[in-house]
Fold:
Amino acid sequence: MQTFHICYRNTQGTLMRILNAASRRALDLPVVQAEPAEHDHQVTLALDVNQKQVGQLCREWYAIGDVIKVRSGAGHASAWSGPHPPAGVAMEESRAAARA
Amino acid sequence: MLKGADIVLQCLRAEGVELVFGYPGGAIMPLYDALEGSGVRHILTRHEQGAVFAAEGYARVTGEVGVAMATSGPGATNLVTGIADAKMDSVPLVCITGQVRSALIGTDAFQETDVIGVTLSLTKWSRLVRTIDEIPEAIAEGFYWARSGRPGPVVIDIPTDMLKAKKEFSGPVKFTPHARPADAKAQGGFTDTIVALLQQSSKPVALVGAGAKLSGAIPELRRLLDHLHVPTFATVHGLGAVPPQAPYYLGMVGMHGTRAANMALHETDLLMVFGARLDDRVTGDPTRFAPHAKIVHFEIDPAQLDRVRPCDFPVIGNLADTIPAFQAELRRHSLPDFSSWRAVACGAERAELDPRGLAQPTIRFLDELFSRLPQDSVVLADVGQHQMWAAQRYRSSSPRGFITSGGLGAMGFALPAAVGVQLAKPNTCVLCVSGDGGFQMNIQELATVRRLGLPVKMVIIDNKYLGMVRQWQQLFYQRNYAETDLSDNPDFVEIAKAYKIHSFRLNEDALREFPVSKQTGDEIDRFLRSPEPELLVFDCAPEANVFPMVPAGAALSEMLLEEEPTQ
Structure:
């Protein structure tokens, strides 16, 4: 189970779009906690996902206009050097791997 | 003091909208009441699906935002297929729907549907307007999201009382998006990585998709491809981006792509993807797609990366920016000699199976039509066998010259979309090719064509079957033609006449000669050059199939080149 923390501006429909990114992949949503956080809002989701789905979900969440930041639980946060990495691989690693 | 409806129309004008497509109804009536004198021309279709497909056709051919309007409830839900189509094919689309009055929302009122909820996963953005004050901002923001990044559809749902309400209006507003931390762009150093990959490769190829057209970077792309001179192919939405006469161009790739393109893609050791999302129609079995290749993926929408097959190196950004940067770096380096690879990939042994004049009659008919089209014509194809044949035989180098519902594959798309295309390009020959199944799905739009006098050239490839489904039933379901028999089609010529549209029939026997007879040639020429709307019904054999074909779950290298005995 992976935990995701998504910061977003609480505009109309944004939370629903965040949840829909998971539900359209037939993922259960056993834990959903949304609350104000600092200047915006944050929703915490626990999802049973594989590595590929982590990348897909994060990229889909970032495609939502009012999503500000996506953080994952342990094991993935350090692998990202930006908001849109390839699945589970940092940009420098990607560059090096591509040239290997 | 202005009504909300007037504010909507003024804001649309401020966004550059001159044309909207729609169908009136109860909840949206105040908006229709305000049309006269607004400067916005409304095109009445005969079904809301016709309106949204027409708006899409307009948007696809111009690159501008298409606008469709419908009332609440069934009017809004009739837009859904078009919204999904725009989402899949990256079409900038704004749909404005009426909604029941605010006090009734959520009560299952007459003609109430939660259109925002229904379309949540199909839209880039949507808004249920709650007050008249929100209208200008909603329209400005809606247009921003429809146009920006990867274009797509938005829905703005406006309760009828908000359209009737009044306020002092100071004018349309501009939407400024919030800054987002590190919206990823291609980071420094990406160009030298790709050059290094090219220098290490011996069988590089290039795949061009819709993004090449959407970015407006066609000239830059063509210069790059001329420089690279590697085997190149296109998705169905990339057709026209590469001039077909380019010696390195291999045509369409994928499920019904050319043999040469599919083989090159299977053998390559470096695949450079320009604005294509590597859809499953292109990849075949993703686990065996480009099995020997490293993939460099130029893409504006990060959500499209790694969907079907992981890429080795993403280049995130607009092709208008990333291609020039790449080419500038390329000029500083020498590349290996790819001529022997090019000779194999582009060689005569892998050439088309059906050169002109030797193919089956329907393909010959399309060849004849396409060869006689005026310059800069626009061809639309509906969905089915005719679509794939048209894509395979299309030879124009006009980037927005071939229009079809690719990602969604929505039958009934072409005729209403042709309405939008013809209105956008009044002096252009617009050829609309449909099957007998798809044509009937929005046949009511013949009335729109007639009322407006649009000189659309409509062709029905009439094999009296739901052809593509029948092909799959023949090849994979032991010829069990369940529910694909359309042998009781109406007489389309008589239907066209009832709509006061000239129509005639051509039989495939007329195409058995090559070159075609002067009489047949003259008939086709007259059809294409008529200043009036015309319908040509092409009667053809029921069991012709589209080849090559990559069966579902197969690799591109396992394409069928001809019919094989069914298992």
